[in-house]
Specification:
TIM Barrel; 12 helices; 265 residues; 8-stranded parallel beta barrel; alpha/beta
Length: 265
Amino acid sequence: MLSTARHLKQQLASGRTVIGLMATDHAWPLLVEICQRGGLDYLVIDSEHGNFSDELVSHICQIGRLANFPVLVRTISCEVSVIRRTVDLGPCGILMPCVESVEQLDQVREAVLMPPRGRRRPGGLGNYWLDNFQYDTWKNDFEDHFVVIPQIESQAGVDHVDAIAAHPLVTAVGLGPYDLSADLGCCWNPQDASYQASLARVKAAADAVDKKVWAGCDGPALRAQGYTFLWIGTATSVLAGAISDTVRTINCANTTDTREPPPPA
């Protein structure tokens, strides 16, 4: 049943460019269809910084499930109850902020996997991924395909990134560029040597275990650097940019078109 997560993982493994969107300031159910129609590959609902209710998040995840479109949720922490609650809302994967150790990932494993491999107690709309509730179904249709992306957002995360990337639960390694630059003391100076060295170390760690790095927002520049798992910004920033481009195009047309308007009918 979890074909969306399986398909997303297959896309990542193929080496093709996988592009998604983050919903931080604003999210609504129709956004899933907008992303799908716009040619995107996934949507992330940001529950770390967004003020979204569980009801809204579960509804958006439900639309993703029915539309066979990957919806992931960024959690507020790696704490077991937070992860368990998020998985119950029905996403096909999670992003976790500021992961700094494999011990945090072991904790996430406890919250995601059913006994005997973990201690998950399933419930909520997350149950609707399955045709039945036998353990083999949980493992083969849900757990083996669930997407887990730890974000590296601190020097401690960079220091332990090799072990984090190699953890068997991890699908891809996420970058948190702004928070990472702040922790490194170069906020926001993306050309800083220590920042660039940290990015290179994260990518090398992921490459070494044949995993992708989740990165944004400058898609063309990141793609030129070899990144293939991208996000293009937040829903509001992309919308604001599209509005600005449209207004700019109209204003440019007004200043360059010197023809006389046609007479009224």
